[in-house]
Amino acid sequence: MSILEEELKELRQCVPRVIADSTVEACVPAMVRVKIEKTKYKQITACFQFDPQYPKSRALIELKSRYISEKLLDGLTKLSEELADKNLGKPQVLHVLRFVRNFIDENPLCCCSEEISNVKKKLIEGTDELKLRQKTSSVVLKVKEGQYYLKYNLTVPENYPDQQIKIEEKECNYPPVFRRWFLAQSVEIARQCVEPPKKKKPKDPPFVLRPSMEPVVSFLIDEAHRYVNSECRMCRKKAFPDDPKVRPE
């Protein structure tokens, strides 16, 4: 029995037991394909092919997912290839599968990586900030315009995007009416992403569930920057005083 055949035999027996939430879809010399599905949106299928020199050469690795972004998968594939290179001359598949499974566990925000990448493009360098907290499956958004600022914590639930993100104001020195507007509208935007309208009009298209991270973060960034330097339509003066501690007349 060849080294590859021995590895395939071991994989058939141990992968479902050792790799949580895994399914062996193919395990033959031509290809090994294993699907790892922690949730509907946190799933990766790992495919391996072998040349005649394997395991002295690296297995050809391909990672696929319906919901995780191509950019993230490309980076994860490169890391998997580096891990396989460290195990040349030995079975490589199980090492890579463990690595991919651990990545899903340790990076719960992988299900919204493309949204995070998109909203980062809207941040103003030097004033705005978006920090990822993988351990708590959350992001911290900081937006600053002049001397005004807000800081929000956005938590991504396990079954995201089927469930909306949880929104919490941590700090904000905008006037009270704007603070209430920012928070209430953020929650409403998130709700509309996952719940159909309560009163549907006959000509409305069918409701389609949408991820709520990007719409909420985009709203907070846009609105926080919009009002500070705007003019009052009645008196034509700045709507906000330069100093947040000064109450407008």
Features:
249 residues, alpha+beta, Ubiquitin Conjugating Enzyme, 2 domains, four-stranded antiparallel sheet, 8 strands, 35% helix, RWD domain-containing protein, RWD_dom, UBQ-conjugating_enzyme/RWD
What is the secondary structure topology, with strand pairs?
Layout: H1 3-18, E1 22-28, E2 31-37, E3 43-49, E4 60-64, H2 70-85, H3 93-106, H4 113-120, E5 129-133, E6 138-145, E7 148-155, E8 166-172, H5 176-194, H6 213-226
Antiparallel strand pairs: 1-2, 2-3, 3-4, 5-6, 6-7, 7-8
Helix pairs in contact: 2-3, 4-6, 5-6
Organism: Scylla olivacea
Pfam families: RWD
Domain RWD: 6-107
In short:
The protein is α+β, with helices and mostly antiparallel strands and 249 residues long. Helices cover 35% and strands 22% of the residues. It folds into two domains: 3-106, Ubiquitin Conjugating Enzyme, CATH 3.10.110.10; 111-226, Ubiquitin Conjugating Enzyme.
CATH secondary-structure class of the largest domain: Alpha Beta
Strand content: 15-25%
**How many domain modules?**
2
Rg is 24 Å
Order of helices and strands: HEEEEHHHEEEEHH
The largest sheet has its strands arranged as 1-2-3-4
Total strands: 8
Ranges with pLDDT <50 over ≥5 residues? none
Q: Helical stretch count?
A: 6
Give a quick account of the main beta sheet: strands, pairing sense, barrel closure.
Answer: 4 strands, antiparallel
Structural class: alpha+beta
Taking the alpha carbons of the first and last residues, their distance comes to 87 Å
Protein name: RWD domain-containing protein
Domain RWD: 6-107
Organism: Scylla olivacea
Pfam families: RWD (PF05773)
